[in-house]
Design goal:
With 153 residues, this protein is α/β, with parallel strands linked by helices. Strands 1, 2, 3, 4, 5 and 6 form a six-stranded mixed sheet that branches. The radius of gyration is 14 Å and the shape is globular.
């Protein structure tokens, strides 16, 4: 399933921003043209979800997510940040690995399945350490692709 969610062009290496909102703006602007949704709508959905409670899940990881009317399929965007951000995470640690998920408003099961898969992947300490040591967006995408293939087998 992950192969259909994450495109190589939606992996950012060394993304630099000063706060959560700016991060969401940058990610939304980069993915918007490919998924046919205005970046401000993506930003609104992510920000509304974040106001319900932090998507910073601990250990330097955040999984911001939301549902968008009219979106075709589930889409992901992975970013490794240059400088960790305060995400008001559950463990109060700053975030440097971010996996954003966007799903159609009516995609209940698909959204939950993708969220579960991403969550399992990001809980793997070895995988996260490899992401933090990767030297490029291509290397990050290779790691993400490899892990997803291994989980599917």
């Amino acid at each position: 399933m992950m192969a259909t969610i994450l495109d190589q062009n939606h992996v950012a290496y060394g993304l630099s921003c000063s706060n959560k909102k700016q991060l969401f703006q940058l990610m939304a602007a980069q993915i918007a043209p490919a998924i046919g949704v205005a970046s401000h709508l993506i930003l609104d959905v992510l920000w509304e979800r974040e106001q319900l409670g932090t998507t910073g899940v601990g250990h330097g990881i955040a999984i911001p997510h939301g549902k968008i009317n009219g979106l075709q399929g589930v889409h992901g965007f992975f970013a490794r940040l240059t400088t960790p951000l305060d995400f008001t995470s559950i463990d109060d640690k700053p975030v440097d690995l971010v996996f954003m998920l966007l799903a159609p408003a009516e995609a209940g099961a698909d959204h939950l399945q993708a969220l579960g898969q991403v969550s399992r992947l990001m809980r793997d300490a070895t995988f996260c350490a490899e992401c933090r040591q990767a030297k490029s967006a291509t290397a990050l995408y290779s790691l993400l692709s490899r892990e997803v293939s291994a989980q599917a087998a």
